[in-house]
Design a protein that fits this description.
With 710 residues, the chain is of the alpha+beta class. Among the domains are: 102-150, no CATH class; 157-290, Methylamine Dehydrogenase, Chain H. The longest helix has 18 residues, at 2-19.
């Protein structure tokens, strides 16, 4: 094995000089082999790198794990050394497009205008407010720039203002494990209370008494959201009352408050079923009542109006419908139709106002907003005029208003916030993301095309490129996708992406099955025992883009993260010759072993997405596609794999094991790099500029493979 790596390294140096990648240290790290056997369903599998999970378990090889990850980082730095100047250039270039001194669009709540603002040279932000009008004296509620000093990672979230506007609850994570500690600040005196609530999801909800908080507590090992607790200010956190405990470890739970302030809701939801409990916000010590007991394969969410509840549900409605019921009769037998099911429209969200409803829908793969007048029962849609775009309700915290805030973006249109008068039907642009240095929208073009999968299914693809692009197959193209959990990858603008487009790359998003772009069935056809559709859809999109001469073999690249990183691993195994390079970010690549270990964070929540491998059929189906299981002795494309040591969503050892096995098995001389961020987790750096360094690394990797030197 050592001889093989020495030979590989020598060839890598020779080849690397022609593609802009080379290494003074020609030998890639060789991971230690410690045989471990998995025995289940009459199937014995050897796992040579099982020991790599010892860091968090504090096992005997914990130090060896860190040593290996550091060596991989050193190797990546050495191989990418020739691109260091380009990486610095890209970072400076992308950072220069971001307005450093900026301010969010203020929103009004209970007489105060709230906003965040950023300052030049600072990585974080300040959370502020002004009373009555925007010309009033500014109050800085949280100076996150100052709070984050001395921390390599700092995330402040969950800002929750008490109904009397005197208290602020907020949450902080300094490790990047998504375990937040909740704090409470008195906004009148500036005092930070002694109440500190650890191991939470980060969000908290005030009751109307201005002293009771409800929050979601996490299991310290699995990180599952297990309990909804009630805390009274000034009392011992250890004595907090559990008002709800989830017994189904496949469900996520959370707590929220209706926009009209009347109710507090507990939502328990998995992939297949959900359940809601509620109390009146004026009665925080009351007993939560069940809205409708969970029903197999039925999802529902509740919205409170003044005179009724609205329920979004898939009960007998694949693409969801809206039902209604009286405030005092919530069981399913009291539900009646408010918005009927439509086979061609996915209904996803309701934003409620006193006299209007705004319904977020998806038709033909595109998002749309429908406005319903609750008084005259009229309905109209907003028009946006682009072939591919993204629209969504923005910050709408006021119930008694006729003004809707919504966000809009496309692959060529910077993120924009509009205010829409639902009575007069007039809109105004409140703010559009500024691209510092100037940006000409007409210099870039976007298209929406359709690839045909092997089973005849038509897959939408959103594409953007710089004006002057010629469809002759000579251009490099980066194809991105996700394809899991029903998450839709809608086309949005990125100022950083301009650095890719300006150097001749075409960028495309494949809206593959496993998301919900084309409706709920799109999701159902890309999960569990139909998961292979996700992967073959992506490959078929790649072939289509080559056939249509957007690019050519040797210039096609793929990128995906998390479950999209699983996609990268699978397509690398299924059709490695299709891709010249692959970027796999925090990739979920050891599916079988992870799903068999219910001590790993979030595993049990995923059973309805991937299946439970303790069941034989699910086990063998997963094993069929799991990237780690299917690494073979064959040639693989150039690959850059990134992860975070503190990742709570996809543990660091999945990509580490995968890369180690690829190094052992692959027969090519292509570049294989593993970059582990030793201070961050799933979402990468917390500062507003540091993440650009990761993008610079990714782009430099692609540019080196295309021999683009500046």
């Amino acid at each position: 094995m050592i001889i093989l790596n020495i030979l590989t390294g020598a060839v890598l140096k020779e080849q690397g000089e022609s593609i802009g990648l080379h290494s003074k240290a020609t030998v890639a790290p060789v991971a230690k082999i410690k045989t471990h056997f998995r025995n289940i369903h009459d199937d014995q599998v050897s796992d040579d790198y099982y020991w790599m999970n010892d860091f968090f378990r504090k096992g005997p090889d914990a130090d060896l794990v860190i040593d290996y990850l550091n060596k991989e980082n050193d190797y990546t730095d050495a191989v990418m050394e020739s691109t260091s100047v380009l990486q610095d250039q890209l970072f400076i270039e992308m950072k220069a497009r971001v307005r450093e001194k900026d301010e969010s669009v203020p929103y009004l709540k209970n007489g105060y205008y709230y906003y965040t603002r950023t300052e030049e040279g600072q990585q974080y932000f300040k959370f502020c407010r002004k009373k009555d009008n925007l010309h009033a004296v500014e109050e800085i509620l949280l100076d996150v720039d100052k709070m984050a000093e001395g921390y390599p990672y700092y995330s402040a979230v969950g800002f929750s203002i008490s109904p009397d506007s005197k208290l602020l609850a907020f949450a902080v994570d300094t490790v990047s494990r998504r375990e937040y500690t909740i704090y409470v600040k008195n906004l009148v005196s500036g005092e930070l209370y002694k109440d500190e609530i650890p191991r939470t999801s980060g969000s908290s909800i005030w009751a109307n008494d201005n002293k009771t908080l409800f929050y979601t507590a996490k299991n310290p090992i699995t990180l599952l959201s297990e309990k909804i607790n009630r805390h009274t200010l000034g009392t011992d956190v250890k004595a907090d009352t559990t008002v709800y405990q989830e017994n189904d470890n496949t469900n996520y739970i959370g707590v929220g408050k209706s926009k009209n302030g009347a109710y507090i809701f507990i939502q328990s939801e998995g992939t297949l079923s959900s359940e809601v409990y509620y109390i009146k916000s004026d009665d925080p010590n009351g007993v939560f009542q069940i809205f409708q007991p969970r029903i197999k394969d039925v999802l529902y969410q509740v919205t409170a109006l003044e005179d009724r509840f609205l329920i979004i549900t898939n009960d007998g409605a694949k693409n969801f419908k809206v039902m209604q019921c009286p405030l005092h009769k919530t069981n399913k037998e009291n539900w009646s139709t408010f918005i009927a099911h439509r086979a061609d429209v996915l209904l996803s969200e309701i934003d409620e106002f006193k006299d209007f409803l705004v319904v977020s829908e998806r038709k033909d793969g595109l998002t749309q907003l429908a406005v319903y007048d609750l008084n005259n029962k009229g309905q109209h849609y907003l028009d946006f005029g682009e072939v591919t775009y993204t629209v969504y309700p923005s910050t709408n915290v006021e119930y008694n208003t006729d003004k809707l805030r919504y966000g809009y973006s496309s692959l060529v249109t910077p993120s924009s916030t509009f205010e829409y008068d639902m009575k007069s039907k007039r809109r105004s642009l409140l703010k559009q993301q500024e691209v510092v240095g100037g940006y000409d929208l007409t210099a870039y073009k976007t298209e929406r095309v359709f690839a045909k999968a092997k089973d005849g299914t038509v897959i939408p693809i959103s594409i953007v490129y710089k004006d002057g692009f010629k469809r002759d197959g000579k251009a490099p193209l980066l194809l991105y996708a996700y394809g899991s959990y029903g998450y839709s990858m809608d086309p949005t603008f990125s100022s950083a992406r301009l650095s890719l487009l300006d150097r001749g790359f075409c960028y495309a998003i494949a809206h593959i099955r496993g998301g919900e772009e084309m409706g709920r069935y799109w999701y159902d056809d890309g999960k569990m025992m139909k998961k292979m559709n996700t992967f073959t859809d992506f490959i078929d999109c790649g072939h289509y883009l080559i056939d249509q001469k957007f690019t050519s073999l040797g210039h096609l690249y793929a990128q995906g993260g998390s479950a999209g990183g699983l996609l990268m691993g699978v397509v690398a195994n299924l059709e490695p010759e299709l891709w010249n390079g692959i970027i796999a970010q925090v990739p979920f690549v050891d599916v079988v072993n992870t799903m068999l270990d219910d001590s790993i964070p979030l595993t049990t929540n995923e059973y309805d997405e991937w299946g439970n491998p303790n069941e034989k059929d699910a086990y063998y189906y997963m094993k069929r596609y799991s990237p780690y299981e299917n690494v073979e002795e064959k040639a693989y494309p150039n690959m850059l794999v990134t992860t975070g040591l503190h990742d709570s969503q996809v543990q660091y050892f999945e990509p580490a094991k995968w890369v180690a096995k690829l190094r052992k098995m692959k027969t090519d001389n292509h570049v294989l790099l593993l970059k582990t961020d030793m201070e961050y987790g799933h979402g990468g750096a917390s500062g507003r500029f540091d993440y650009l360094k990761d993008i610079a690394l990714n782009y430099a990797f692609l540019f080196a493979l295309e021999n683009i030197k500046k």
